[in-house]
Structure formats: structure tokens, C-alpha cells
Design a protein that fits this description.
The protein is mainly alpha-helical and 209 residues long. It contains 6 helices and no strands. The chain has helices spanning 3-23, 27-54, 59-83, 101-122, 132-161, 166-200. The longest helix has 35 residues, at 166-200. The protein starts with a helix and ends in a 9-residue tail after the last helix.
């Protein structure tokens, strides 16, 4: 258990806490969910850097890292899905309203497909590394999730404190646009990255055992 693996385990442990805090009614809990998500997202970059920099890449790390990434995705997307369906006006997503079911199906369906496809390739001695589109997809997902986890408590604070003025109006427009655009681009790259995997490893499709 080296330092990068310990960081990855910590990311796994904190993911359910992020989900719980995001679903909590208090403003403080929702701000805490945003902060913890940022720490978890940055830890993914940090543990990878440390592993490569110091030669601490292990089979355990290769196993745990994708588990941590997918658990963090589930622990944020699922709460967002349910929050967006609450009756109050402050819970809907900018531009999107409720988080569409088809978006959740596309996001999680892609993750399941790629996981199974990698396992299929591994049985044939081929290791499928993350592609450029896949990395950009993950980055946009994090931009969307982080933006939305901050959006919710900011709206609650603005309502409670009656924020007004040009700065808040401008920030609200920018923030809403950020959420709407990053989600749209993330969904697009989710589909394109899956197609990229299929195209790059198309020789595997239909290959006999």
C-alpha cells in the first residue's frame, strides 16, 4: 500500500460521503459536497502523477483507480438525478430542467460497455488504455459535476441573503451556461469516445477465442 494507492482508497471512501452531503438539505452540507468533490477529482490527477514520477505503479493501483473513478461518478450523478426531480424551483438544472433519464443511460451505459470491452480484450492479451476522447470526456464530466454541486448551495445562499446586483446576475448567467454546455459536451464525448474504442479495436469484434 504505497502513497498513490492510499490516495485512491481515500477517494473510494469519500465518494459515499459526497453523495450523502449533496442530498442533505443544509447549505453547509452542499458546500462541503462541492469541496470534497474537488479534492477527490484533484486526487485522481495527483495519485497518477506520483505513481508515474516515483515508479509506484502497481497492479493494485491499476485495479483500484478505475473503481474509484466509477464510484465517484455514481456517487455524484445519482444524487444529481434525484435532486433535479425535487419539486422546488432551485433544484432543476440550468438549460436542462431535470436530468434526463437518457443522459444517465448514456453515461452509465458507456462506462459499463467500456469496462466489459476492456475485459474482453484483456482475455485476448490486449490492454486498452484510456484514449484522448475518453480523458476529455472525464474532464468535462468533472467540470459539469463540480459546477452543479456549487450551483445548488449558491442558489440557496442567494435566495436566503437576497443577493442582487450586476455581479451576481452576471455570475449566475455564466455559471448556468457553464453547467448547460459542459453537460452537453460531456454527453457528446461520451458517445464519441465509445465509438472511438470500437473503431480503434474493431479487429477484436468477432474474433474467435
Amino acid at each position: 500500500m504505497n502513497l498513490p494507492n492510499a490516495i485512491t482508497v481515500a477517494r473510494i471512501a469519500v465518494s459515499p460521503l459526497i453523495a450523502w452531503l449533496a442530498l442533505a438539505p443544509s447549505v453547509a452540507s452542499r458546500y462541503a459536497a462541492f469541496v470534497l468533490f474537488l479534492l477527490a477529482a484533484f486526487s485522481d490527477v495527483w495519485d497518477g502523477y506520483l505513481a508515474r514520477r516515483h515508479g509506484w505503479i502497481t497492479d493494485t493501483g491499476k485495479l483500484l483507480d478505475p473503481i474509484a473513478d466509477k464510484l465517484l461518478l455514481v456517487s455524484t450523478f445519482v444524487p444529481i438525478f434525484f435532486i433535479s426531480r425535487r419539486a422546488d424551483a432551485l433544484s432543476s438544472l440550468p438549460w436542462w430542467g431535470t436530468l434526463p433519464v437518457w443522459v444517465v443511460v448514456v453515461v452509465f451505459g458507456r462506462e459499463l460497455f467500456v469496462t466489459l470491452f476492456r475485459a474482453y480484450a484483456a482475455r485476448r492479451g490486449i490492454v486498452i488504455a484510456a484514449g484522448t476522447l475518453g480523458k476529455r470526456k472525464a474532464l468535462l464530466q468533472n467540470f459539469f459535476i463540480g459546477g452543479l454541486l456549487l450551483w445548488y448551495p449558491l442558489l440557496l445562499s442567494a435566495t436566503a441573503m437576497q443577493w442582487s446586483g450586476s455581479f451576481w446576475a452576471g455570475w449566475r448567467t455564466f455559471h448556468a451556461t457553464w453547467i448547460g454546455v459542459t453537460l452537453g459536451l460531456a454527453v457528446l464525448l461520451t458517445v464519441l469516445s465509445m465509438g472511438d474504442y470500437l473503431w480503434r479495436y474493431r479487429a477484436l469484434v468477432g474474433r474467435k477465442e
